Amino acid sequence: MFKILIIADPKLAGGDLLERIAGLCETGVDAVLLRAKFLSEEEFRALAISVKQICDKFGREFIINQFFNVACELKSSFWLTSAQIDLLQNFSDTSDEFGLNFAKFKDFKDMATKFTTISPALKIYAPAHDQAQAEISAKFADILIASHIFATSCKAGLKPKGPALIRKIKARVDRQVYALGGINKLNFRSVLDVGADGICLMSEAMRCENEREFINGFLADTLV
């Protein structure tokens, strides 16, 4: 069964963000990533605590993007940015503005390994915009995010990579791969057909009128 990961961004949310996340978690999504790059660390931490409480209530995986210090504090899964992958690749002892350096990341990964027996387990996610980046990201992450697969307003003017990117990555690295970018109920089957282990939903998930109907659009023909 493929996984459904929701990217929660306050700027994209139609209505109350926390209510939207709760509705999606209750419906049965597998994981929620909180992305809010425009917030200060203090503001992000406060929001992350509230989102984590919702995820914990429904037994969903909670993932933090970019704010490494907060991920350490809350013991959540973590989604590395491309810049953070570059920093790790250079084995840097200098921390970025979010508290990440190579030594701290190694400690975090060791901690995550100890949590593999809990549900949901802590995982590390990283971008895979092309095959070369996928091979680098695979050194640090459990799950790779292939993007952008289909045309999306978030990447206006940029040519999508298409499902073929997923097939290429799966052929070269032994990691789970999730598809991101323009995924909807009409095209998601094509990424599963080439080996995607999960799909990431963002804009439509944040603005859907009914969370249950929205998620069931992806699950209806997979339920036995």
Topology (SSEs and partners):
Blueprint: E1 3-8, H1 17-27, E2 31-34, H2 41-58, E3 61-65, H3 68-74, E4 77-79, H4 82-89, H5 102-114, E5 124-128, H6 131-137, E6 143-146, H7 164-172, E7 176-180, H8 188-193, E8 198-201, H9 203-207, H10 211-219
Parallel strand pairs: 1-2, 1-8, 2-3, 3-4, 4-5, 5-6, 6-7, 7-8
Helix pairs in contact: 1-2, 1-10
Organism: Campylobacter curvus (strain 525.92)
GO molecular function, one term: thiamine-phosphate diphosphorylase activity
GO biological process, one term: thiamine biosynthetic process
What is the strand content? 15-25%
CATH fold title = TIM Barrel
Shape: globular
* CATH superfamily placement: Aldolase class I
**Total of domains:** 1
**End-to-end CA span:** 11 Å
Report the C-alpha radius of gyration, rounded: 17 Å
CATH architecture: Alpha-Beta Barrel
Helix content: 40-55%
Concise overview:
Residues 5-75, 128-204 form the Thiamine phosphate synthase/TenI domain. By secondary structure, this protein is α/β, with parallel strands linked by helices. Helices cover 42% and strands 16% of the residues.
Question: What can you see in these coordinates?
Answer:
- This protein has 224 residues and is α/β, with parallel strands linked by helices.
- The protein has a single domain, classed as Alpha-Beta Barrel (TIM Barrel), CATH 3.20.20.70.
- The chain contains ten helices and eight strands.
- The protein has helices at 17-27, 41-58, 68-74, 82-89, 102-114, 131-137, 164-172, 188-193, 203-207, 211-219, and strands at residues 3-8, 31-34, 61-65, 77-79, 124-128, 143-146, 176-180, 198-201.
- The chain has an eight-stranded parallel beta barrel, surrounded by five helices.
- Helix 1 (17-27) runs parallel beside helix 2 (41-58) and helix 1 packs parallel to helix 10.
- The chain is globular, with a radius of gyration of 17 Å.
